[in-house]
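Quick log. Single chain, no ligands specified.
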Amino acid sequence: MLNYDINKEFVFINITFYYLRVIFLEFQKMRHILVIGAGRSASSLIKYLLDHSEAQNLHVTIGDLSEELAKQKTNNHKNARAITFDIFNEAQRKEEIQKADVVVSMLPAHLHLEVAKDCITYKKHMVTASYISPAMQELDTAAKENGLVFMNEIGLDPGIDHMSAMKVLDEIREKGGNIILFESFCGGLVAPESDTNLWNYKFTWNPRNVVLAGQGGAAKFIQEGKYKYIPYSKLFRRTEFLEVEGYGRFEAYANRDSLKYRSVYGLDDALTCYRGTIRRVGYSRAWDILVQLGMTDDSYTIDNSEDMSYREFTNSFLPYHPTDTVEIKLRHAQKIDQDDIIWDKLVEIDLFNPNKKVGLVKATPAQILEKILAEKWALEPNDKDMIVMYHKFGYELNGEKKQIDATMVCIGDDQTYTSMAKTVGLPVAIATLKILNKEITTPGVQLPITKEVYNPILKELEDYGVIFKEMEVPYLGYNPLNVTN
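-> predicted structure:
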């Protein structure tokens, strides 16, 4: 009887060991993707990878400072692992990167570099949605020597803008056209059904970026062969107007530097190159009031900000007067008529409220304004956001000037799978899988401007509602009479 029990136990151990070995070997065969950062933009990215994990044999590790946030994004999927991840923990960072086949960094742009260096060391592909920094570009040679794809600027803007623009530009060139005008506009907005305030705007992305938009140097672009510059103080009073079928009229203000992509897009000879940010008509004129007051300044702190009311904050930018109210002083300073809709917009965001406190210690004006607006412009639980992108392509073909307009509107599903999360995260996810499957193989630090990259990604994005509508329209340009301007 004793021998029987021992043998039985021996058989059990062997069977257990066998199955553990099978599980281990299956795990070893799985392809491993490390996603660093589980913020708002990562929702659709993570869902896409997990939705494809069975068919593609993927195991996805999601690392974030908040393990709880990472767990929320995995939704208890069997092919996912959520971990607390500190980018500054060098030992952990290196350990996790070594395990991965592809590393996706959804960190703030300035934190990508250490990840990228480790990816070079351990020969791992890397994907980010951020602009290519000079330090990242310096890794190009090392990435090529190791056969590594370092795909950057593969989100929305930058990302989908690059891919959709290059597709049309390449098509025009292939039929012999010469590009003379390129304009590109993008904006994260609130969907029409959720548009419930006078500004026609709610925060769908990082509020701080909205408050600081346009700062850091003059906007630079070229129109009809003439270089143009708009200082920050004038930026929101120089807008273009756009019409999107089914969604009405929009305005756009210039991005900081529209010239840096001229060579990248092959537009060195184009007469016009302009990139801008889309808002609903009237937003920029009202925002300009806040700029002129000084409320968007982030260069100094206000000593008594903690105990200051919103009304006192507004008054701090206005001259002293023994009898005039804050309202009267602001009207006079900014020359706002009593029946101007701008006034109603300023009232709506509580700038004159004496009962609400700032509650921030030694805050900058920009930080205080961000807090004020966050209360008024937050998306409600059932609100949906909207992405609008608009390209204009002017070209000459057989002596005739022509124009193509391409528009894309994407509406979010809910507060988790927003249109912003879709349009930022899905291109990252699709590129990651195509790199893993060796469908994108060109090595080096790059952005998605080659057919190898943009054709399959744009095609797959259509399945998720990211669809561009291209229209042949009469060429307008800026200077049909060819006069000096």
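Residues 160-286+381-415+467-482 form a domain with the Dihydrodipicolinate Reductase; domain 2 fold (CATH 3.30.360.10).
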